[in-house]
Amino acid sequence: MKxxxxxxxxxxxxxxxxxxxxxxxxxxxETVSATRAEYGDDHLARLRLIAALADVxxxxxxxxxxxxxxxxxxxxxxxxxxxxxxxALPPYVDGDRDDYPRARAAIADLDxxxxxxxxxxxxxxxxxxxxxxxGLDASPAVLRRYADAMKQVAAAEIAxxxxxxxxxxVPYAVLGTAxxxxxxxxxxxxxxxxxxxERETGA
Amino acid sequence: MKxxxxxxxxxxxxxxxxxxxxxxxxxxxETVSATRAEYGDDHLARLRLIAALADVxxxxxxxxxxxxxxxxxxxxxxxxxxxxxxxALPPYVDGDRDDYPRARAAIADLDxxxxxxxxxxxxxxxxxxxxxxxGLDASPAVLRRYADAMKQVAAAEIAxxxxxxxxxxVPYAVLGTAxxxxxxxxxxxxxxxxxxxERETGA
Lengths: 203, 203
What we know:
Two copies of one chain form a homodimer.
Chain A: H1 3-10, H2 14-22, E1 30-33, E2 36-38, H3 41-56, H4 61-72, H5 78-87, H6 101-109, H7 119-133, H8 140-158, H9 166-200
Antiparallel strand pairs in A: 1-2
Helix pairs in contact in A: 5-9, 6-7
């Protein structure tokens, strides 16, 4: 298809399509004449992915570029790919410390793996600081409630990865981390709402 | 304590403390002389709460103000208080539509309550659009996985509210919605990491 059709079908203005190509976020079309390039379904899929990350997930363009780069040229090692993906997602925290005692204690109690270089450790540390700062409960019993639910979710999410080739597994893991989060949070809010409505109506 | 001590103990600069007072986010101190006001532990707690929401959770100041206003003067009705709290939290979506067919279908399938005026419905709709736009699975079976975990979490979170007076229940619900989310997301990322490390080491 021509760039005009690509623009129309994706809903992305032609100038923005050209910008993404210049920034290396979208491959060039196949040159068919001096003035025309041909675009395919891969281009359409890539534009939808950029829109999902930038418009819907609300990530800054530099973060979208980081995530696309991970998908296009993943580290051979899945653990460091996950680490980079997590680092490209909010909350953006100072992850340069050697140790995070608050997170370390929680992680030990929850039987998870403590690796201070994995950004989610710093993110947990900050999140616990906020909970405590607001006077909310961050006791082991409360954290276990969240950890149990998340272990269950993560096990189901990770299960299919074993059977995937690397070029499928990486986008699945990277995009799954980024894009199921808002789904999960919306469902938690809906579950609260549902329980309150149920109680109100005596159901 | 004097404003200088309040500043020192909270880590918030004196100028910022004065700004919060002018903006109505922090109550004035008790006037003890023409040039001095006295501050108490309530002021300290409020500054820690503002820091948790603004610095750690990363909310814009206008959103922090909305959340503080909900805590200080909650709607009598818990469902509308929850609605306002959810509206003050990201993702910020266009919640003005009368109907969200994508979310409506998912919510019906998950046995939750569909109320298009509750912002989390629009948030779910957008989140599902992103998942589909990225070519990820948004089938009922996958959504049920997240919904089951979130129903379990929400039930445990809502349970203690029944025994709380309103002036405790509202901050618990509003702050709990805002501040346990980053904890939960960090734990999901840590659970992924843990499962990958386990697999790598053959544990």
